[in-house]
Every structure is written in C-alpha cells, then in structure tokens.
Amino acid sequence: MKIAVCLKQVPSTDTRIKIAPDGKRIDPAGVTFVTNPYDEFALEEAIRLKEAKGGEVVVLSAGGQGAVAALRNALAVGADSAVLLKTDADPDALAVARLLADEIGGKGYDLVLCGKQAVDDDAAQVGPMLAEMLDLPCATVVVKLELTEGKARATREIEGGVEIVEMPLPAVIAAQKGLNEPRYASLKGIMAAKKKPVEEKAASAAAAKVEIVSLALPPARQAGRIVGEGAAAVPELVRVLREEAKVL
Amino acid sequence: MSILVFVEARDGKIKSNSLEAVSEARRLADEGSLGEVFAVVPGSKGEGAAALGAYGADRVWTVDHELVARYQPESFVACVLEAVKKSSAQVVLFPASAMGRDLAPRVAGRLGAGLASDCTALDWQGGALVATRPVYAGKAISTVKIAGSPALASLRPRAFPQMERRPGTSAAVEVLGITLDASRARVRTIEVGASEGGRVDLTEAEIIVSGGRGLRGPENFHLIEELAEALGGTVGASRAVVDAGWRPHAEQVGQTGKTVSPKLYVAVGISGAIQHLAGMSSSRCIVAINKDPEAPIFKVADYGIVGDAFEIVPALTEALKGLRVGS
Question: Nearest by CB to B98, which of A158, A207, A228?
C-alpha cells in the first residue's frame, strides 16, 4: 500500500517562547526545532503498516528549508522518500492543505496520515482541509487504526469517551497521542537515510487568509502564597478557597 | 449581512458551548452592525431551537434526518454549506468542541475560507473578523485577522459567556431544506463508548485535580480520584505519568495534552514543567501541593501547601466532605 505522511517542523515543547522584534512571530534564537509530536505518531503508524502489509511511505512537508531535518529524520526511521514543497512565505493552514493536496492528489495513495494538530499554531486544520480538497473521507483525533479489506476503522477521542468510525480507503487520518509509541531512528537507519531521495519542489503558497496581526506573551501569573506546610495547612486552604477565591 | 452559528446538539439537547457561540454571535452582530444571527442545528427535531432566540438567534434551521442523528462529517458539512448559502453569512462560528474542531476545517476547506481555531476573543474591526487565540498551548497569544468572506472561527468552550441577551425572545424555527445523499456519507459511526464513570471531560470541567510523579505510582492515584470526587471535579495528569503508563493520555494536561481553564485547578505532586504550565495557566484559581518548595508550579499557583501529598490530600478530601455535609 502507498502511504503519504504529512510532517511539520515545530519548536520543541520545552521551548520557552520569546517574541521576535516584529511582534508577529517567535524569536527563533536558541529554539530547538523538532518534528511535530503528533506527526511522529502518524509516521510511526505508516511505518508499522508498511512493515505489516508492504508498500511505500512518502513523507511530505510544506515549508522552508528547515523542514528538511524533519523529512530526513522520517527517512531514518523508515520512510522511503521525501518531498519538500518549498515555500518562503508563511502559509496558513488553508494554503498548506492546498499545496499538499496538489502534490498528493492523483498519485494513487491508499492512505494519508498526519498529526491532529501542530503544537506551534495549534490550529488542527490541515488534515480535514486536505481531506475535503482531495474529496476523501477523514477521521481526526485518532487513537487506534485498523485496516481491513479496503476499509479503515478508526477510534477517535471525543469529549468524555471515544467514537469508532469506519470508512472506505483511500482516507485521511489525523493522529492523536496514544495511537502508538514512536520509535527512534537507529544508526543504521540514519546511514540508510542519507541515500534516500529528498525531492525539493519550489511551491507557490496562496496568500494567507488568516493573517497574523500580533503575537504576545500571555499576562504573567502572579505567584500566590504558601498557606502552610503539611496537613495542618488544610483548614486554612479550605478557608481561602471559600472566602478569598470563592471557588468552593 | 449576517452571522451563522453551527449549533451542536447531542441526543437532541443543545450543548452549552453552542449557547456561548450564539451569545457571542449576537454581541458581534450588534456591535459590528452585521445584521441577523442564524443558527443551523443538524440532528435536531426542533427541541430547544426556539429558545436560542433568548441568546440572540433570529432564525434557526433544523435538520432531522437519520444521517445527522449523530455526527456524520460529510452530512454535517453539507448542512453548514447549505446554511452558509441561504444566509449569505459573512461570519460563521463553531464551538471548538470535538465536533466543531472536526467540522470547521472541513467547511473552511470546501469554501476556501480562512478559519481561526479555538478562539478566546473575537472582534469586528474595519470590516474584518479579528480573533484572539492561544498558540503553543497557551505560551503565547496570537491575534489574527481573517481576509475574505465568509470568515470562520471556532470558539473555545467556556471562554465566552453564555448570555440571554434577549430574554423571552423566541427564534423563528424552520426546517433547512436540504437533500442529504447517503452515498456521500462515507465515515460511519460503528460505536460510541463513554469513558469510565461518565465523568465530565477535562476541557469542560469546572474543577480539575491533577496528579504527577509525586504520587510515586499508579496505585496511589485513588487519592487524586477521591479528592476529585469530593470536589465534584475531573482527574487530570502530567505528561510524565501518562508517558509512564500510569494514566490514560486522555487525562494529560499541557502541550501534547489538553489545554484547560477551569475555575479551580489542583496540582498534586506536579513540579510544573513548562509544557504542563502552558496547558493550565489560564485556570482561574490554581492550588499546588508539592513537597519541594522550589517547584516551578508554586510560581503560577495562587495557593500552595508544601509537604507530603500522602498526608495533605486525604486531609483535604475529608475536610471537603465535611463541607458538603455542612453546607
């Protein structure tokens, strides 16, 4: 089976955000960029499917040159080839979905996997947008995936529980944490990845419909006070929660 | 000119996240002179639809059809697209619930429209929708302007007030004339499973009690559950204990987990890694219980107790039970 995995490079989750002088983006100085964690679940699922059923895994990313690192890493853990849709513009989700749809459409993919959201802009849009543009069925926030006889059965997280849905292939699946346990690249994998192709294509992203006006840090929380030590402090805690905070 | 709101109904009952969205639509319509507020409610036979008038809806379209009896993405997309066409809406709002977060990008993809997800504030400025939304799980706040019409936004549950802006007013309720095509409905629900005990989801909870490494093992999480029970709250967890397999990932609070803003957040044995703080710092009141007085969690907590969670938590649970009986 032929599987496409869409990846994004993002600041690691332990990044302390600083705002750039333009007041619109983060200051990238000192930031470690990694593959979006949710995309790693998508990639791992694709590789497991390839191992179980045979086939091919192609990883794709739309973005700047930096995304090559995420693509190389994907090749090192087992993807077969990579495509960078290279754009210097800051595309919004709609523009990214359009670039990916144009690249993926008509190439005979059985399955398209992506993360449920990127941990930078937290938009959670590209997967379902891509599905609509490709006119494919789609399930988001997927924690379990089974493929049988041309169908995908996906368990997706909803408020207070899960929903199990079934759809015909090809389909788009957006991965949630819990889908699997992503592997690390082996030294052998890293060496092998050097021989695998990363195709760079100049891409022209549509103007962003969602335009960033400003980016700011949230108001800092004032540290409160220690009401006491040990179980003896419990009555005072209950009192302040009732009388000061009025939350009980 | 108008605003359209996608209203979520579960088992015929309209969800509070959608009352928040209708209330906000009315405020925007009034302040931005955007005209009427329309609502579309797939899966509704009309229960509670007229009552949306009190929150500010002028007209409500219902769709009663087996394909929309529960969430079915393609059919829901078709209903919203039809309502967009009928209303000529300039702004389309969705609750950023599980359903809304799945549906809104699909509609945006079909319309080629801009969508601001999971917004915490909206404004109409110079003929454009301007949205405030947390990014990096709340480590930063982004303000975005949406070009083109319609402009789409999903509203973070509990971030907007649910207000009866027109008490006693009934909305005009009509059936949305639409023919749904079963052959287009490719994603079919096989089963819906509730989580244990049917607890309130973290994103909807008013009170959350979260546990971390300080609990020393999964066998001690009953302390967290009992405290949550005494408070009428929901159990959360740090990434460390989820990654260790002590708790299910659905309970994880923080980046790569859930972003929450309850009335009261109690963090027990959680040191406060930056990705955890990102996900809970917008809570109204934060209580930290930790044996390390230098733990970063105390820097964001309103109230803290330093000490052994194994003594403090049961004492707190008992004190709260006494409170319930007494009040």
Answer: A158
Q: Which CATH architecture has domain B197-326?
A: 3-Layer(aba) Sandwich (3.40)
Strands B151-155 and B91-95, how do they pair? parallel
Scanning A185-244 for CB atoms below 8 A from B yields: 207-218, 221, 223-231, 233-235, 237-238, 240-242
**Helix (H), strand (E) counts: chain B:** 9, 18
ipTM: 0.96
Give the CATH number of domain B2-184; options: 3.30.559.70, 3.30.1490.20, 3.40.50.620, 3.40.50.10490.
Answer: 3.40.50.620
Residue ranges per structural domain of chain B: 2-184, 197-326
Please name the residue of chain A whose CA is at the shortest distance from the CA of residue B154: A123
Model confidence, pTM:
0.95
| SS3 assignment for A120-145 | CCCCCCHHHHHHHHHCCCEEEEEEEE
Nearest CA in chain A to B149: A209
How do residues A37-94 score in pLDDT, each as one tens digit?
999 999 999 999 999 999 999 999 999 999 999 999 999 999 999 999 999 778 999 9
